[in-house]
Fold these 2 entries.
Entry 1:
Amino acid sequence: MQQSTQKKREVLPRKRVAEKMADVLSGIRVPDLPYPAQKLSPDAVSNWQPLLLSCWSEQRDEPVTHVIRSVSLTWSVRQINSAYVADRIMGVFLKTSGLHPELARRIARLRFFFAWRMNLEGAGALNDTLIQWLDSLQDCRGWSASGGRSSRALLDQLDSLVIAVSGSFESGDIEPVLEFCRQWRIDAEKREQQNDRLRERLLATEEGASRQRRAEQTARALVGRALQNRELPRPVVDFIFDHWFGLLKQIVWEEGTEGENWRHASKLLEWLVWIGDPGLSDRDRNRLYTVGEQIGDRIVDVWNRVQKKPLEEKALEGVQAVMVARLRGETPDLVPALPSGNRFSWNPSWLTFTIPPEEEVAQVKGKWFVEGEGAAEQRRFFFALLPDTSEVLWTNGAGVKLGLLPWARFVDARDSGTLRSLPPLKPFGEVLTETITSLSIVLDRQKVQRQEAAREAKARAESIRREKEEAEQRRLAEETARREEIARRKEMVEAQRLADEEAEQERLFREKEAAARELVDGIKLGGWIVEEADAKGQDPVRLKLAVRINASRKLVFVDRLGLNRREFLVDELVKEIVAGRIRVLGTSAEFDDTLSRVVGRIRVGRN
């Protein structure tokens, strides 16, 4: 696991990204994608430009690979890989860019444009101007779908991107998109100059308002605490709200709550309440005289130091009348010190106000925070902590105020998870580099697997070839043995046939010889034979049996004239008759029939 993790962290240099992307587009293979079964001719590859333009014009969020699988067209390997790489890059961008989901989704629709250009130009599709523009989108990290003017302005600009990309699809040139990127950069620089002025004015305005709010709330807290659940004479109440309340605010505005003026003013407020409330001052009449003698002069003294002008004489008339009545032992008419119905709100925490430690503020100042989830999330920039009120000044990062949040509530929201720090945004160029690095690792692994598969296939083919050769050799050996067996059997059958034929011929010869011997034995004196001529053109010779010598088994034949004597031994004559060179007249027909029968049996035996 550690080794694989380390390899993933070793990101390729930007210069090698183009080279690796070309390898990935041509070499990677992704399961379940509709790759062609064989290499296609250019004419066989479908044109996907109209399809991608349609998807872009409709601003579809569907991955390119889903689109090309949804239609029954023929795609090349490069088209399929371009679609996959574009989906992969924009998929990672959606997850890691850190932009608002709605904004990231609109940018991710460029997958259709990237797929089209990568199929045409490879790594050249990701022009430096285009990557720089995508990187600059980090300036929009604070964008939220608030429906405000700044929110709509950015969406209007992205609508212009739709027009620019559509024009690039139609013209086949990337220049409209590059011109959009350059114009975006020019507009961004102008906005940044304006934003600097907006931020300066906003900070000055909010610091002044914060200081005024601190003065208001602190004075309210002091007066509210002093008058809470009290009933005082109307002149005292009127003086406190008409004059002394404003004085307290002025002291906090100018000096804060650490100076002498604030301490004296607070003490005088307590004296006014003490004098006006009989339940308090009647317990110590001596002190009532002392306070009554001093309070007027002290009020005037503090007033003159703070307001830099004398207090109106009429302002203290009511208070002085109450003090005189109290000194006489009279009990004046009392009214509730605070207005009814919570018309005077106050918070005692302002009297114990503290500024959070600077190191804690430094950790979060100038950072982005997110509230909400998904498309409903709202992003806020911690622009400043107003020192007078310890309130977080939220902006949209461009000098537009989004609200204020007390530091204590900010800490609680962070601790509860309601408010989250925005993770560091990842520039598009980094997304591109890491994605191509990851895919190149996959490609290298696939190459190794292919080489291993090729070696295994070669070894398997060699094994199959050897098995086939061995099987063929066995088959040939078996065929040879079979043929030899067949030939041997044929030879045996032929030998048996020849033997049978020879035996049959021998038997027939013996029968023929017996028949011929019987003919010879049956020739009577005067019987005739015909001897066939030896040479062509000569006539057969007819001979007549003249003498039979039984002792020597000799037969003497003569011609018609008694001349040309020929002698045959019986065995010799039998052989000549059997050979067909001599025929015995008179019984020759019977002998011929015998010979015909014998010859017929010989032929049947052969078949």
Entry 2:
Amino acid sequence: MKNYLLSLFAILLAISANVQAAEPVSIRSLLNEMIDRESVARFPAYEFRLKQHSSYNRASKTPEDPEGWFNNHDFNSNDKDKNFIRTEENNGEQEWVLMDHEGPGALVRTWMPFRNANRPSTDTRIRVYLDGATEPTLEGNMLGLFDGSGLIPYPFAHQSLRSAVSFFPIPYAKSCKVTVTDRPFFFQFTFREYAAETPVETFTMSGFNDAASQIDEVGNLLRHPAVSVKTEPQTLSATLEPKAERSIELPSGNAAVRSLSIKLGSYDDPSVTRSVILKMEFDGQETVWCPVGDFFGTGIGLHPFQGWYRTVSEGGTMSCRWVMPYQTSGKISLVNLNDEPVAVIMKVQTGDWTWDDRSLYFNAAWRGQYPVPTRPFSDWNYVTLQGRGVYVGDTLTIMNPVEKWWGEGDEKIFVDGEDFPSIFGTGTEDYYAYSWGGISTDFYEHPFHAQTRSHLYDKLNRKTSGEKNTQGYSTETRTRALDTMPFGSSLQLDMEVWSWTDCEMGYGVGTYWYADAATRSNRSPAPQEALNVPPLPNMDAASGGPKSFENSFEFEDLAVVSKPKGVELNSQSLTNYRGRWSKNGHVLVKGTQLGDVIEWAIPAQSPGAEKLVLHATKSYDFATLRFTVNGIAIEPAIDLFSEKPTPTGAIELGEFSSIDGAYTLQVEVVGKNRESSGFRFGIDCVSVTPGS
């Protein structure tokens, strides 16, 4: 009887699975899948392969021909360029065919850039023909249809940095053709190719309208990601000594990690996010070895952003919402590779999971290399995988030593032993969903991609000029929902190293995928390379020197009238920290104690009253100061404490008349915040302008 019941239960499970699998692919099913974090932890029920039609240069045929393989002309600038499928005439009008796929599928990502870096407008029409129809199912402005300003709302479609990007699913049962009414520029259309027997409900406008409430709900969830887990988190709060490792053992049995957060005690040294390593073991096998910055998408240093799978907060908490299942056991560890202790707080929440034959283990790995020569042009391998799995994202941090643009390189992705990549891109920034990289050195974020840092800029220090300097660190991150990449036997992801300058760059990439236990990667722990942090270049060399604030005097150049014995004044570069300082640095005043007074002389610029505005720095061991100008005290005192170095912004001292052609600025240490560990301070510059 017992065996009979077990057999009956197995039959019912099989019937249930078949009923679920019989539900056709549709707008609604794909929208559900987009926010179902569990779904990426299983191999797809309806198996597909991700494909892409793009404007890559058709001269790229084989690595044996480097001139063609690394040809950078991935767009159409005149009638001689043929980086599209074909042209055809419909109703007396010429159309350029950009995508043409036969068989069941779903368009899951579109990317098209501005034709001019500073002008988002276009008159070109884009048309989407489904299932062989002679009339388009979708038609609109080439950019407006897919930039969030038209039919498809944000966040499914949006305007990133100088690009129109859409992730809204457009399923089709038989075919999909995309055309434009003028010669195309750059483009990428990424789609799922399903097996021939897969049931698919083709996108229709009536179906789109019927899904309006679901579209609103999914869009709201994407903008406000959260995890609902009833279990209390397991917490590790400790100081990691140099070379030490601390762990959390996960509950035994069938379960899954649902959320993970890590906060380091200090990010003053930006390289701490590269030297603290996250490790994970599931069912006795290590599947994750990755620096925390590359795992969470912040790169080198703390650079806040919000995504669907990961969030980095301004307060320093880095969190992720990947679902990570296991069958019997799990362990999550932090390793400190550095020579200094690091305070850490790690929290892990787990939940139920039912393991089946589609369940996969979460994996993350890291590769770093410095230096990387930019000549000759080359393909830099992110990762190569052997076995079955699903690729779900990556974070690239590069160090560019020169001002000129570094990211012309195309992604080339080979799946299941392909001779030619089924995904051949048009530029590194295009892969990360923006364009015109030489000028797009600003922060941006979206649920599925972000540029968390570029040049001097991040979420807390936005770009306000039109400069094209791309020196320093840039961090690009992309996670995948409907555009995940399943593979049955292998996956190889390469990115071209293609800079406009012959130089030596630094590359580091974190990669994330789900896979069977038997799947293998070509990545292994690399502690020495993790400590080989690419040095920042002289950020001012290419631009003729650091920029001063307008009408300002640097404290490095001002005469010190008096100071206590033992107090030291040292110039300090602050290029590694977020925020803007005049000439990228300040004077660090050390050895100060409560009651110390330092005086500077500031030259007057005119005989009349003038306005004085001071810029200083806040940090974790800085004092509270009172400023006095020509004997007049400025109230209140200024508390310069902050958990990490940051500029104060403008401190308006007031309007004053000079004495003997100068102003005497007196700075007195009057106390400190109870959380501050010292009485030091940093002082940047003072501007002198005509009074009112």
